[in-house]
Amino acid sequence: MKVTSAEFTKSAFNETHWTTDGRREIAFLGRSNVGKSSLLNSLLGKKGLARTSNTPGRTQSINFFLVNGEFYFTDLPGYGYARVSKTIRKDWGKMAEDYLSKRRELTLSIQLIDSRHPPSELDRELYEWLVFNEKPHIVVATKSDKSSSNKLKKSLDEIRIALPESTIIPYSSLTGKGKDDVWREIENALS
Ligand SMILES: Nc1nc2c(ncn2[C@@H]2O[C@H](COP(=O)(O)OP(=O)(O)OP(=O)(O)O)[C@@H](O)[C@H]2O)c(=O)[nH]1
Ligand SMILES: [Mg+2]
């Protein structure tokens, strides 16, 4: 897909803040610090659009980005970061579950997993939930530039075994590896 425009539209802290124009949405989900905002920026070719940071738990709202005036990317807060308070953790669960279960515009969920590690308990829970609820989804294995090709191959095999029903795409926001594959999945979902 050729990206001709990409702009931040709004941050939503609850359902009343969601966009109301009916455009379809591609959601980015995964634990804190896994690289959601970086993936989104890399796909859109705009470095600072979604804020990235070394401080896990930075994104606390659902952030909407309008792409080509046609559809939205939604950047969800990361889960599983131990140092955020219990209230925030509870709010994450509610916000994400509300969004995933109620949102009619949701067309594809992109679940991010760190390519260096086997999926965590929470990664598996989210995956099971998406499969059980028949939500179209793919898995993107992030930070693939950080492993040797041997090690990467091994961990991808592990991820495939743990998440057998998903298409799994290795990605690097640093090099752009995997970009065409992810765009192809997004285009398919939107077509
Ligand atoms: N080497 C490398 N670093 C990456 C990659 N993707 C993300 N990072 C780094 O990982 C850190 C976290 O990235 P973010 O994109 O902010 O992660 P996030 O999932 O949006 O984090 P939260 O918003 O806190 O949930 C940043 O320091 C990024 O630069 C990648 O593909 N390769
Ligand atoms: Mg983020």
Shape: globular
Which structural class fits the helix and strand makeup?
Answer: alpha/beta
Radius of gyration, in Å, reads 15 Å
| Cα distance spanning the termini | 12 Å
* Global mean pLDDT: 90
What low-confidence regions span 5 or more consecutive residues with pLDDT below 50?
none
Biggest sheet layout:
7 strands, mixed
Helix content: 25-40%
Strand composition percent: 15-25%
- Give the number of DSSP strands: 7
Element-level helix/strand string: EEHEEHEHEHEH
Summarize the structure.
With 191 residues, this protein is an alpha/beta fold.
Question: Mind sketching the topology for me?
Answer:
Elements (H helix, E strand, L loop, with lengths): L5 E7 L12 E6 L5 H9 L17 E6 L3 E5 L10 H17 L3 E9 L6 H12 L4 E6 L6 H14 L5 E3 L8 H12 L1
Parallel strand pairs: 2-4, 2-5, 5-6, 6-7
Antiparallel strand pairs: 1-3, 3-4
The protein binds guanosine-5'-triphosphate (GTP) and magnesium ion (MG).
